[in-house]
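Recap quiz, item 2
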Amino acid sequence: MPYIPHTKNDVAEMLQSIGVNDIDALFDEIPADLIQSDLPKTPGRASEMQVSQILSRRASQDGTPLCFAGAGAYEHHIPAAVWQIATRGEFYSAYTPYQAEASQGTLQLIYEYQTMMTSLTGMEVSNASLYDGASGLAESVLMAVRANRKSKSKRILVPRNVNPTYRKTTNTIVKNQKIALEELDFDSQSGTLDINSLPETPGDFAALVISQPNFFGSLEDVDALTDWAHKHNALVIAVVNPMSLAVLKAPGSWGEKGADIVCGEGQPFGIPLASGGPYFGFMCSKQALARQLPGRIVGRTIDLDGKEGFTLTLQAREQHIRRSKATSNICTNQGLMVTAATIYLSIMGFEGIKQTAMTSHQNTQKLIGMLSKIEGVSVVFNSANFHETVIKINKRVDEVLTKLAEHNIVGGVSLAKNYPELENSLLVCATETKTEEDLAEFCTKLKLCLSNNENPGKS
Amino acid sequence: MSDIPTDLKYSQTHEWIEVNHDGTASVGITDHAQTLLGDIVFVEPPEVGTEISMEEPCAVVESVKAASDLYAIVSGEVIETNDDLADSPESINNGPYSDGWVFRVKLSDMKELDQLMSADQYAEFIESEEH
């Protein structure tokens, strides 16, 4: 069933009234050699029934493995009420509304989301969200270069223990603006950024990126790093796992002056893993930088009758007003994901996410204890972690992951591709969703995969 | 009819400049410009110490209607900015030639002043722009 409301007669009438013979004639200014008449790699048309059959068959192949992978997207329990409420007709719109002020309910929800995010990050301003954590970092880098009035530099210092996907995405977005991401190496013992290894005279740079926890799950000395960057007139961009903020120091309190810009991936708050998306990025900053913050911002105000209302605010930053000088070409937000996250946070409350964060932390510590007893497994870094860490195994990691998958276990994320020095290393994570039995199952099966019986002839 | 003091010089982008004997000058936007912009809510002046060049954007004035660039009326070094505008940007609406000054500059080329308009010329210019 085609979802086009015009009948053949409607179309014929419309064409006639503008004096055109057929629809193709409307496109005749496109040179013939540019028109791709067929799309050989795209399958032909199928009916709705056929498509749902194909997709259901494929979906059922996914299975529901026991997941110990994290690396930026985390499996947390989502209370059933979250999506039950988020998919109500009143909320179920994925887009910033046009004529925004006509949608007071949507604006109020975004305003409450912003309030929650500023409270978690210890910042003063939040935008209405961005696409994902990676583009959040890219926008933060662009913002830092614009906002740092003490430095004209386009250098950004980015530790290698910041999520490699975020670094790649950021580089793609900022490189054509001549912004250079300069890598800082991490300490091979701790996996963290060693404050003593940082140069005494780093030269002029616009910002330092600090990831807390870092990509390896380890906790950085955020206070010392923040003060170091500020001492050199640079801004501090914090990339944080929002769930960790329930138990770790808010970026607004890092060091003497606090981080300047905070961004990250919002997925842990009520968004299912769903093969990688859609997720949402969050971004907050200090009040002084609010006019450089990209994206939509909802404010609370009063109308002429003194009644409270919500409105899009500081729009002079945005492209429909500022054109080419806008803070960003971002003109949307992840409305539906933010709706789910706001409902998730409302249901969980601060105590709820604190418990979730603590249980995830404790489960991971238990898992580390159990894994380190297995022959052929060692823990790579000696630093404290939130709910994720790196282990090294004495077999080829890809083969072990494949074996584990046969036992219905996603055993972690292999690191060698992005970190050649971390060969045969796995990033593993145990959130609050993992039971004692789950942890034991993982260890038993990993032991089996590492034993010579399971994998003969390889070492 | 907008207020155009005779002792100032003007640019086609609606900035004014008042030159002192020591080669420094105060810069702001004209009464005509502030009328067009409406209520001004934010001003981002240049950093003290920046070198600005004539006709290049160097500051931003944001009103309830629009955000507009303020173009450097002359070249030189910014030596002082009007910090009071951070808390009371409406000074530009209330006194564009007095409390509403935006920054002070040390001119690098006095000859640039010859390219600017006198009060009469500016009056004629805005008249012509309106038609």
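Chain A touches chain B at residues 149, 291, 316-317, 321-322, 325 (CB under 8 Å).
Chain A has eleven helices and 15 strands.
End of item.
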